[in-house]
Amino acid sequence: MTLTDTTPSDAYDAATAADTAITIYVCITCRGGRPLDLVPVPGAVLAEATLRAADGTGITVRRVRCLANCNRGLSAAVRRGGAWTYVFGGLDPEAGGRALIDGAKLFARSPDGLMPWRGRPEALKRGLIARTPPFEFAGDTE
After folding, report:
1. Which of 1, 36, 57, 129 is the most buried (most CB within 10 A)?
2. Per mean pLDDT, which range of 114-118, 124-128, 132-136 is the poorest?
3. pTM of the full predicted structure?
4. Which CATH class is domain 14-132?
């Protein structure tokens, strides 16, 4: 299985995946303040952990070089079509993968395109860096 393979499961069925497709972008160059000569690179470890956690969920995981969040790495972005995109930092190389997938499942079920605070894994509460609006967002009226 590669980082872009997806398969449906009971927890996140194919119909849900088609309507609320989630993609997680994991920075594979992130070091999170760890030594520059550390191998494997912690961001790559996070990407692999996220892939393992995503197995059978229908959630797509993609590698990306640098999310420009170096001071608060390890970093990942969670995106859903027509919804806000979330950038997270300070993720643990191993446990961060499960947190990202659990948050992505919660996000996929959200009717308003926002990742609910309630039920969000603690790592995603503490590690929220930013959220960016969807392309079609016209702005707030007030």
Report:
1. 57
2. 132-136
3. 0.83
4. alpha beta
